[in-house]
Amino acid sequence: MSGVKASESGERAKARRPRDRRDQIAAQARELFTSSGYHAVRMDQIAEASGITARALYRHYANKQALLAHVILEDQQRWVDALNNLAASRETRLNARLSTLAEVGIASRRLSVLWQREARHLNDDDFGLVRDRTRWIERQVNDLLVRPARPELGAFATEVRSWAVVSILTSPAFYDSALSRSRLSCTLVDACARVIGAQPGDRTVEGDGMSKGVQHAPTSRREQLVSAATRAFRRNGYAGVSIDDIGSEVGMVGPAMYRYFDTKASILVTATTRFYEWQALETMRALARPGDDSDVLEALIEGYVRLSMQATDLLAVTLTEAHYLPQEARDRFDKIREENLYEWRRWLVSAGDDVSETLATTLTNIAKTVVNDLVRIPHLHDGPNFAAELITAVVAVTGV
């Protein structure tokens, strides 16, 4: 009898186990990785959020790295499937194709955060696969959307616009929009269409090309430490770098480090502060430029592009390592970021044709995301007139 009861108990337990348990675990992990960062999340936390034991979790995923790979690759697969379907479809209308991809972007809204911030924690094989898929997605967007609509554009201008379209469609990962889902989808489609259709601007950008110039090392030991830390944080992540690692990059070890910074966190705060102070300077320069409201908005965009190209490491660390900041500093920087967003929104509403504050907020978020994404693609910096091409795309996003 006991054997029968044990068997029945096992059958009942098996019956209660959801068939989509693996997907439920992935969904919980996706949210935790996004909100807290890969290093800060433990497997037992994922198990608890999924309503199972840690032991049960390991029946589905060998380790946390495998779980991260599954989450990123699963979201990417939605893009792969959608683009393959478009390639096989008879639907050739640009807006219809963009609408299909906008829905994928909204449904996979965590992908960009995890790819840009956490993919460096994947093993070499998985990282290579994710990177190759990302490049494949851009090429498909180029072949299916941009090149057919603008065959007269040069190869580099076409590539910049293709990456901008990918950035727009995946931008919901980085902001919460007050627009309804259908209105957000339309906004993404319209922004992509404007970028693809934008006429190349004959502009000269002050400081264009400086991002790939010779970088002379500063004499100040404090500045050397900030530069070394920023590079290391971008390369390996804040959690993957020790304060001794930072010191060793500039030939400084032991107590000498602490004459400049008390903790590793204080270096991160310094780097983040520097980026936002430089952003404030570019904002003041834009506001001082003569012209109408649309000229002010374009000056804000130009200044942000210039800053992001010349201080890409600072930008990257500000975007990807903010969750490691002390809470007080994090709150302060959130406020600074919101105030800068409102500045852009103000001029977009003033210069736009009946643009609501809600729509302007979303367009501003999209515009900044395009800059943030494209300046972190290293090979684009080697292209001709990258800053001018990028500004043309971002101005098109705003619709002004």
Q: Concise description?
A:
This protein is an all-alpha fold and 400 residues long. It has helices at 2-16, 21-36, 43-50, 54-57, 64-88, 94-107, 111-118, 124-149, 155-170, 181-197, 221-236, 243-249, 264-288, 293-310, 312-320, 327-351, 357-374, 386-398.
Give a written overview of the molecule.
- This protein is mainly α and 400 residues long.
- 70% of the residues lie in helices and 0% in strands.
- The chain has helices at 2-16, 21-36, 43-50, 54-57, 64-88, 94-107, 111-118, 124-149, 155-170, 181-197, 221-236, 243-249, 264-288, 293-310, 312-320, 327-351, 357-374, 386-398.
- It is globular, with a radius of gyration of 23 Å.
- Residues 6-15 have low confidence and may be disordered.
How are the SSEs placed, and which strands pair?
Blueprint: H1 2-16, H2 21-36, H3 43-50, H4 54-57, H5 64-88, H6 94-107, H7 111-118, H8 124-149, H9 155-170, H10 181-197, H11 221-236, H12 243-249, H13 264-288, H14 293-310, H15 312-320, H16 327-351, H17 357-374, H18 386-398
Number of helical regions: 18
The overall pLDDT average reads 90
pLDDT < 50 stretches: 6-15
Q: Could you give a short account of the major beta sheet?
A: none
Cα Rg: 23 Å
The computed structural class is mainly alpha
DSSP strand count? 0
Order of helices and strands: HHHHHHHHHHHHHHHHHH
Helical proportion, percent range: over 70%
Overall geometric form: globular
Strand content: under 5%
Distance between the termini: 79 Å
Oligomeric status: single chain
